[in-house]
Amino acid sequence: MANEDTAEFEKKLIVRNTRYEDIEGIIKMNQLGFGNPEIAFKREHFESQLSIFPEGQVCIEYEGKIIGSCSSIIVNFDDYGVNHTFSQIADDGFIRNHNPNGENLYGIEVVVHPDYRHMKIGRRLYEARREICRKFNLKSILFGGRIPNYHNYANRLTAEQYVEQVIKRNLYDPVLTFQLMNDFELIKVMPNYLAKDEASLEYATLMEWKNPEYIADTNQRYQKSLPVRITAVQYNMNPISSFEEFAAQCEYYVNASSKIRSDIIVFPEAFTMQLQSYLNEKVPSKQVRQLTSHLDEYKELFSDLAIRYSINIVAGSNFVQKDDSLYHAAFLFHRNGKVDKQYKLHISPYEKKWWGIHPGNELNVFDTDCGKISILLGYDVLFPEAARMAVDRGEISWLHHSRLLINKNH
Q1: What are the DSSP calls for 271-331, one per residue?
Q2: Element (H, E) at 17
Q3: Predicted confidence (pLDDT) per residue in 344-381, tens digit
Q4: Which of 59, 111, 124, 375 is deepest in the core (most CB within 10 A)?
Q5: How far separated are the first and last CA of the chain, in Å rounded?
Q6: Rounded Cα–Cα distance for residues 388 and 262 (Å)
Q7: Cβ proximity of 301 and 333 under 8 Å
């Protein structure tokens, strides 16, 4: 039988504040990411940023390697206006003009290692900036964005015309298109913004994301909960002929949910029974035990999907062989690579009679980037004590067919 231990599938992708010991790795990554070492920050810049505003400097670590980073500063944007240069607003990268009492977060750099751009690292860095904006109750995030493909069109389009065509999706720019897809809006095209940015011909787009949770009067005695977007899958149990077909169908739903920026996708209970359409086992007790042989493939699949599409996945449920007993378990795959599971606590008469399922004995509350989550699997929802226990442990609110419980006030 497959090993039910999930530790080996937990890939180490960590979003965290930058530390001094990260600087050397970030410098090497930036030189690769920009393709022009002249415009990348040097050690003295990172050291100054960390000493002045450590909360605004974020990196992403994957299996011990830095694969993305971003730097930010708090300012009163009105002090600079829409015709500023990078040197003016970022103090040449040293951020000695950081204003703790300012109203705007200004992004001065985002870099992703070229070898890891398929893992939505940029999106994670942008979301980290949004968290900083919310944490400090700032009005908005602004930055001057590069337009690195502009030099290919400069002989026939002005910078403003080029940006307009990118916004209309008639042209593609790797930086501007990404920013538009992440809900930033254009304010102005700025000339002479970043010296030595030859690809952009020193033009930049002034972009802004307005914080919908900004509270003008910080003396108010309440705090808004963070919005959480959840996709509940109505899964099509059509016949399949291989595990690869199952994986492709699951990826379709995950991809669609990621495109609308869902934080969590929830698959149905026991949807892995679809595999029986090609396993062809007729005896009920043998059917579920046969499914445990695919547990490793199942966990590898959803761990990979959660990381690649930057979404937390409640991957329905599967069957687990532990010692000589069979359990029914729901798995939670975090977008940072962590894997959690919840055994079903209340076994239905059908599961006990036909499959010989044993109950779990512990209700878990999991910490996620969306808040605390608890999972009630199938028959568990009929017993209010389980939901009450979850609420007592994490102040969790009721959500999605009583199967997923989430606390949004973290």
Answers
A1: GGGGGHHHH---SHHHHHHHHGGGHHHHHHHHHHHHHHTT-EEEEEEEEEEETTEEEEEEE
A2: strand 13-17
A3: 999 988 888 899 999 999 999 998 888 888 999 988 88
A4: 375
A5: 39
A6: 27
A7: no
Phi, psi angles (nearest 5°) of residue 391 = -65, -45
| Contact residues for 254 (Cβ-Cβ < 8 A; gap 6+) | 265, 305, 309, 311, 313
Burial call 353-365: b when 16+ CB within 10 Å, e when fewer? eebebbbbeebbb
Query: pLDDT for 160-185, tens place per residue?
Result: 999 999 999 999 999 999 999 999 99
Going by pLDDT thresholds of 50, 70 and 90, the confidence category of residue 10 is: very low
Smallest CA-to-CA distance from 359 within 347, 377, 350 is with: 347
Q: Mention every residue, 6+ apart, whose C-beta is less than 8 A from residue 88.
A: 80
Is residue 320 within 8 A of residue 1, CB to CB? The reply is no
Query: Sign of the CA dihedral 76, 81, 85, 86?
Result: positive
55, two tokens = 């909360």
pTM: 0.68
**Integer Cα distance of 203 and 184 in angstroms:** 18
CA-CA distance, 336 to 366, in Å (whole number)?
A: 14
Q: Tell me how far the alpha carbon of residue 276 is from its chain's centroid.
A: 33
Q: Which two structure tokens, joined as six digits, stand for 172?
A: 């593609």
Residue 388, classed as helix, strand or coil, is helix
What one-letter code names the amino acid at 311? Answer: I
d(CA 16, CA 259) in angstroms, rounded, equals 24
Cα–Cα distance, 381 to 403 (Å, whole number): 7
Helices (H) and strands (E) in the chain, counts: 12, 16
Cα 1 → chain centroid: 33
d(CA 23, CA 122): 19
Instruction: Tell me the two tokens of residue 293.
Output: 């042989």
Cα distance between residue 365 and residue 374, in whole Å? 5
